[in-house]
Fold:
Amino acid sequence: MTDTIGFCQETRPDNCGFVLFGATGDLAGKKILPALFGLCQKKLAPHNFYILLIARTALTRPELESRLTGLLARAGLSAEGDCLADFLGRVEYLRADYTSVDFYRGLAARLDELDAKHGVSKKRLFYLAIPPAAFGTVTDGIRDAGLLADPGDCTCWSRLIIEKPYGASLERACAVDAGLKQGADESQIYRIDHFTGKETVQNVLALRSANSVFDETWNSRCIDHVQITVFEALGLEGRTGFFENLGLARDMMSHLLQLAAITAMDLPASFRDTDFKAEKLRFFGSIPARERAAAAACAVRAQYEGYRREPGVAAGSAAETFIAFRFFVDNDRWRGVPFYVRAGKKTGAKRTKISLVYKKPEHGVFHGTDIGYPNVFTFNIHPEEDMTFSLIAKHPGPKLCFVPRTMRLGYREHAEEAAAPTDYERLLIEAMAGDQTLFLSVFEMQFMWEFLSPLLAAWQADPGGGSLYTYPEGSDGPAQAAALIEKDGRAWL
Ligand SMILES: NC(=O)c1ccc[n+]([C@@H]2O[C@H](COP(=O)([O-])OP(=O)(O)OC[C@H]3O[C@@H](n4cnc5c(N)ncnc54)[C@H](OP(=O)(O)O)[C@@H]3O)[C@@H](O)[C@H]2O)c1
Structure:
């Protein structure tokens, strides 16, 4: 039973075992293991809890411990003393041979031992931090070894967490999903998009639900357009192979669509996962094939100028590092309001933000005068975490003179707010608690590919050709991205 105290208390998840496949990988080292340590440090991990790390690499216990302390230090976590000892006391390592039946038999026996040692009763979270091509083999192996509990059995459970990008095309994503479903029930599959785990993304919905003063005006009557920007100052960060195969559109589209949905979907009847997902589904359903085709037709893709000189990048690589596009939502709330979206690497300062730009006043004292857009509501999601609302006020002085002002509300003002769970910590807590609200349904995964496929098809018809633009490192992308919004008489903020 999940143990919750009061409305605002943190959920302390069920006692369980956490099994991490691909434990030597980039994602495990940068995100998952620091998050597991963070949960232990913040006392948010279950009371009875163990972590079994699995990979094909042979590691002795001292090598494992030195790896763990090194990666925690690189993640900026003060890993020492009792906290580190407690964490290491929960961690064990198992070398894998994913194609061998004996490996899965050995895994089953090891999990039984760990359950007994840590007081856990067959409640297990399996995190597949391995390449998607290996998902099917691993899920088949754990199912055949009897490690996937019957979803109807309330005395034990098994859950699988899988990572985006869910294949490299709609067909391959569906094949990966079909492979997973051979072993697991949909209710046991937790598809991660770590943006939904961000505090500041959840705040978008919290603010909309609790303050009708904003949400009541978020519709085509008051809003001129919406902008979403996800920029990174960094380049490939050692993930050249991954990036060369996929490109930025496949890597980022799930994040971009989640931000759009959380900003613009109708408010759910409750925050239960079924209500939340039903509203998201309705929102995505309001972007029909003709709107997706129109978004693809105007989409801009580009590469930063030094990309092809990066180590490991092919001389004529057509992998995009920047995308921008515009789409419309065909529902009563948003009909006619353009959503402009852009994302890029090496695009100057890192920033993720969502802005709702209100219409200009058409009547009264400003009639006939273009004063720009006086009201813009912005959620700064990362790394800045605040909300701003710009407006126009009277300038102090004898004349009636107007001046732009900005109201700012910092998201974390107090020390204890800084210690709130990180995105991966939040998602791990929710998965351990069996709450799928923040995870993606199969429909969302499919919709992402339906949105992406026309873009990719258009680009495939012209690989590396005139439609792949370039932009200087540190800039806001190519001139064509600016033209995309400027031809509508607007500008990126
Ligand atoms: N890295 C990120 O920032 C990031 C972000 C979002 C999503 N993802 C997704 O998360 C998953 C893991 O990403 P990653 O960057 O950590 O990947 P990775 O470093 O390429 O691989 C993770 C680990 O998987 C094992 N592995 C490699 N090939 C395998 C195979 N064919 N079969 C089984 N195991 C194999 C390797 O460990 P051993 O050889 O020791 O077994 C490797 O250390 C992928 O699905 C990726 O798309 C990653």
